[in-house]
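Appendix B. Chain record.
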Amino acid sequence: MTGASSGLGAHFARMLHSRGMRVVMAARRRELVESLAGELGENAVAVTIDLTESGAATALVERAVGAFGKLDLMVNNAGTSATGPAEAETPARFERLLKLNLSAVFECCQAAAGAMLPAGKGSIVNIASVSGFVSLSDRYPMAGYTASKHAVVGLTRELGAQWAPRGIRVNAIAPGFFPTEMTGQLQDQEQVSWIERRTAIGRPGRIDELDAALVFLAADGSSYVVGQTLVVDGGWTIL
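Structure tokens predicted for this chain:
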């Protein structure tokens, strides 16, 4: 689980661990990820790592295999965002977003495949976003982030096509608005009102409403699902 120090990553790590999975949690913020591992206890390993550094993805997978002997599931959740008009977005900021949100995702997928292909099985779940399908620019203009999430959707399809014949299923989840660190825990009432107006179901999501999507894509119940992005957005993208 990458990006496990807070938000969706920490929540997913807790949820999967509670279902009996052995979890390796990776993040840059040492204190937070080690605190989470201490909270979970047995079968939870914390790895402090910067996935934008060369060789980090390989080192993470090696640590997971070293700890538990195999890798069944890779969840690529680490990411960042930045808002502002496209004309003011610097090339450097654009490239930083792509490095973490796209290049690191690919490198983690590639490293995971290195462990999964010899076993002939495995599941990779990438965390995309509704911004991989629609623009949020009426409130959140963010060209780099949007480009990266569109790319994650495409990468998921391509890797699914390449690796499914050899036993690895690659899929993605595209969340709408949930209370996380990235969304300010949805404490801004103006933001919440905007979400309520724009969402078919009329409210933001509860973070537990993503659990079933991840469990489905991770487990054998989705054994015939490949290269898909499951949108969990309360109907945001259908309006």
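Further analysis of this model is presented in Appendix C.
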